[in-house]
Structures are given as C-alpha cells and as structure tokens.
Amino acid sequence: MSHPPDPITRSVVQHRLSSIVAEMGEAMLRTSYSQILNSSRDFSLAICDVSARLIAQADHIPVHVGALPWATRAVEERFKEVAPGDVILMNDPYHGGSHLPDLTVFVPIFDGSRRLFWSIVRAHQSDIGGATHGAYNPAATEIWQEGLRIPPIKLSEAGRVRDDILDMLALNVRNSHDFRGDLAAMIGAAHMGERRMAKLFRELGAGVVEASIESILDAAEQQARAVVSTWKDGVFFGEAFLDDDGRGNNDIRIAAKVTKRGSNIEVDLSASDPQVSSFVNSSHANMHAAVVMAFAYLIDPDTPKNSGALRPLTVVAKQGTIVWADPGRPVTLCTSHPSNEIVEAVIKALAASCPDRVMAGWGRRFRIAIQGEDPRTGRGFIWHLFHARPGGGASPGGDGWSSIGEWHSVGGLKFGSLEVAEARFPLHFRQHEFLPNSGGDGQFRGGLGVALDLVFETEKPALGNTAGDGARHGSCGMLGGEDGVPHRYRLLSTDKPPRTLRTKEVGIEILPGDCLEVRSAGGGGWGPPAKRAREARERDRAQGLVTDEAAKARLP
C-alpha cells in the first residue's frame, strides 16, 4: 500500500489493536492458575513489530510494557530464523528482561511467509526457584541466588512443544503445578493475539494494517510533541531516595537531570548512586521502563502509549549505577524499587516545567511472601500479600485514590477478594479498611493506605520474607503538598513482644495464630495545605478519612 490510509481505516485498526490486547488479557485472567495472576492480575500484554517497536498494549502493568521493546530486541538478535508455531520464552534481566519472576512469551505473527509482529505476554510467577520461596531473595548478592535465568529460548518449534525444556523449567520451581498452568495460559493468550491479528489481515489486508500502524505511530508522536511543546524549556533536576539496600546503606539516591527543548525531552540518570550488593539494583530494560512510565503519565491520557508517543524522549544512564547494574548483580526488586524512585525523580524535575500535569507520589511496595502448609489439605502453599495497597498521589485533578497501589502499576495490580483468599489459604482477614490520616495533606489530599490485621490459621510454623521499601520515606508531596505517612508492618505473637518487620529480610518465623499488622502508606498531597477547601476538610472528617482531632487542627 503506497499511500497513507484514510482516517477511518486508521481508527478502525487502532481500535482493533486495542481490543486484541484487551482480549488477550481476559484470556489470561480466566485461564491462569495462581492467585498472583487470576486475582491480582500481575501480567501485561502487547504487540511489537520485528523492529522491536511497541505497537499496542493493554492497560495492565506499565513497568512490564515499557521494558518489552528491549526484550523483543533480544529475541530478534538471538533468533534469525523463526517459523509459524514457534513459541519463545525468556526472563533474564541481562537479555532484555526486567527481573526473573517475569516470564515473557513471544508468538510470531506472519502474513504468508513474512513475519511482521510478535504477540507478547509477560506475567509474574509466584516462584522462580532460587534460594528463597516467592521469587524475591533479600539476601541475594548475585543474580544466581535469585532464581532460574532463561535467555531467549524456543519452547515450541513449528507447533511442537519442547517437553524436555518444559520439564527442566518446572523442576526448578517450587510450585510446578501452578507454573505449568500459568505458562500454558500465557502461551494460549499469545496465540489468541496471533489469531486475532491473522483475522485482521484477512479482513483488511496486511499492507493496509502495516500502513495504518505507521500512521498510528506518527499520530501518537504528533500528539505527544504537541503536549511537550507547551512545557517550559530548561534544565531541571529531581531526586528520590530508597530507604536502604537491606545491608546498612541508607538513603540511596536516584538523580534525574531533565532537559526540555521544544518538543524533546532528555532524561539523564547518570548521577545516581553506585550499584549495591542487594536486589534493589535495576536492570537496563527496567530503568528505561521507569522513565517511559514517568513520561507517559504526563502526556494526554488518550494518546496511544506506543513507540510513536515515545519518540520525543531520550534516556541517558551510566552502567554500574543503581539504575543500571552490571551483569550478575541481583535485581529482583527492581520493578518496584528503584522503579518508583526513578519515576519520582523525573516527575519532581518536571514539576518546574509542567506543574499543571505532575502528580504527587504514590505509595511504595512492601510485600511479604509466606511459605507454609495448609492444615485443611496437608499441601504446601506460597502466598503473596497483594492486599493493603498503599494510597495514590494527589494531582491537580483532585485527591488521590485510596488503596490503589504503587506508581509502577498505577492501579493495574489488584488485591483480590478477601473471601477467596481465605478459601484458598489458611488466612483470616480480621480487619481490612482505610487507614485514617495516612494521606499527605495538601490542596488535594493523598489517597489513604490500609489498616490490615491478618491472622495465620496454620498448625505448623510458616516462613516469611519481605521485599519492598517506604518504611522510612513516605510518598512524596508535590508543589507544597505534604508526604504521605510511611509503611508500618509488625508481627504480633501471643508469647512474644511485637516485632517491627524490615522491608528486606528473610526467614521470618510465623507461628500458628500470629497476626500480621499492616499499616500501609498513604499517597502524597498536591499543593499547599492552606489552599484545601474547608468543605473538603469537613467531608474528610465526616467520612472518617481524617480523624476529628486531625481535621480540626487543619481547619482555618
């Protein structure tokens, strides 16, 4: 097709692409085995082309999708010959992945003999082997202690599954049943994307689809540049700090120098602190994804988030720093931290360039994984805490959402039904409700965290490990807004004093009847507190979002 498609055809193709990746997501939700996928939805879907350009994505986990072009590039470099029916699998952070728990499946999309696109599914596994259960190892000093590394490999060749490879993978994880089921769901969802694209080729012709995609990418670039061109030119600086690395190094700095000229943005993270010996380092692809997230949050929401929209953005970083670790360093926490802090540093910098678009900080991730035995079945289990989500940051548009989650997922990660969790695992949710006074004050208030009391109904001791941040540094306030209240997690036992849990520790003994007391972080406030409307403060007080004493103290 030599001439550009008409606007109606382009719109039809754009919406079909969106519906294809959305349908892939629904297939994942309905066919995956583990709670981390079929309840918390820790997966993402996308279509990339053979040039590793992001063509379309579903609204799931931004930090996943922002790294997929790098994974696609690694696959293209590894395999020069790809046939219909091939399935390629990878997860290695040093081959284009983000961190080991995120498996990525690629299914090629052909038009006749021409390979045009990839149907891609990335999903977080509940376990990936390694020294500790649950895919995160706070004690790791090298990536080989974090789990199974998979460079791009062919799991299926011309439609024939490599059972020897699949058996080897399943043998190296703790819950092979869920692993096999989740991987089958990923492959099925990717094949669905392949089939839907083939149908689109039959209806419109592959040439029309290709030309429409070029036009879609160009239009997204024009829309993004039109927004960026309205921002103030200059060189701006922002910084954010990780609490620690779990090894005694505190306040690890992520520094962003952002240069804005015309419709171009350059983000330079080179001045960030050196890499460390623990899993808070970032892989290269993950670092790029975090910068892409920050940029995407500031352009118009109806602009397609594809490679065209990212053309105004350039990323500069230095290998050997916390944001781009040398090969072999542990990086498993990176999709949460330092991703959140990279986003925070970039948005803080751009607050001086586009103050009407920046939002305050979202809560940081503080997860705990429990390995134990369910007395009702006698079978082992691994359970990941996705409940008690932190609050979202406020924005010029209003107060932050409560219990929405972290900046790296912006609501894409869900906490599932309490009743379903209690049915599947030996748990009792004694309390799960908004935490008053946890959101940062401001003209617009940060969203609230959650007060959770979780009782373990096991009959044998269980083991926990934590992985996260944000127990010292609360979600940042923006443009005069106050920070949100940080996390506070404690383990309460009947025969031991309460113990405050650190964000990065392993081997936590959890006895039958113990209670995990979670008080999750609130989001940051936006704008000076003095500008908050009296009616808003009275509403907060009436709804119990702010206690009477705190509300009265704020009233003018």
UniProtKB/TrEMBL annotation:
Residues 6-529 form the Hydantoinase B/oxoprolinase domain. GO terms for cellular component: cytosol. InterPro entries: Hydantoinase_B, Oxoprolinase-like. GO terms for biological process: glutathione metabolic process. It holds the Pfam family Hydantoinase_B. Residues 521-556 are annotated as: Disordered. Residues 532-542 have a biased composition (Basic and acidic residues). GO terms for molecular function: 5-oxoprolinase (ATP-hydrolyzing) activity. This is N-methylhydantoinase B.
